[in-house]
Amino acid sequence: MTSRIEHTDVGAYALGLLEEDDRRAFEAHLSSCPSCTAELADLSGVAHALTGMGPVVEEEPAPEEIVDLLNRKKARDLRNRRGTLVIGVAAAITLVAGGVTVGSAIGGGTPSVHAGHDMGPAESFYAMGSPITGTSTAGASGGLVLEDKGWGTHAALMLAGVKGPLECELLAVSTTGERRVMTGWSVPPSGYGVPGSPSPLYMHGGSPFPRGRIDRFEVVTTTGKTLLTFDI
After folding, report:
1. Among candidate residues 213, 173, 216, 163, the one with its CA nearest the CA of residue 193
2. What are 211-228's pLDDT values in tens digits?
3. 14, 30 in Cβ contact below 8 A?
4. In this structure, what is the dihedral angle of CA atoms 156, 228, 132, 162, given to the nearest 10 degrees?
5. Are strands 166-174 and 132-133 parallel, antiparallel or unpaired?
6. d(CA 188, CA 190)
7. Is the Cα torsion angle 43, 44, 49, 55 positive or negative in sign?
8. pTM for this predicted structure
9. Rounded Cα distance, 204 and 69, in Å
């Protein structure tokens, strides 16, 4: 290599296979070649791992074979990095496309995912349904979206117009008067869907009753006060 510097000699340099004049020339080349410097950093770990290793066969591999292996590793790593980039871009496109599709289904063509607002599972399910409006004598408001399941009934609740501190439950009341808790939560002092805290609360839960056995749903406090009633 004394006549000229080759970029492909990084592997030989990493293994200490260059002659003294070539080594010095290559080190001078490194100071002005970012690609060789980066390649050397990638190969240094492999070279270190090979140092001091005994032969696994009776005949040790020739130096040029080791250099060839290092060059192949570099090419393989480059392909892997490019593959990871492609996968990442594809995933991002899928997420964006998925968000637009969901938004179109919910809002007639307007995406439902806005900057700074990521919908949770309960809110997403509620947004895709046809809410039943609740009635209240306590100043609360809200809606309920229902879904039939093999195991019973799934419901998503939107609750607003409440201040805490409160502990609440969503109940399913059967046609025979049985009452089952579907989910429970606490309301902080700031509340939900009120001045100063305008965002409503979204919750979801399940009941073992099929919809045909349910007379109504109720949102109640643990002290026995009914906040909302949903007749179906």
Report:
1. 163
2. 999 999 999 999 999 999
3. no
4. -60
5. unpaired
6. 5
7. positive
8. 0.51
9. 57
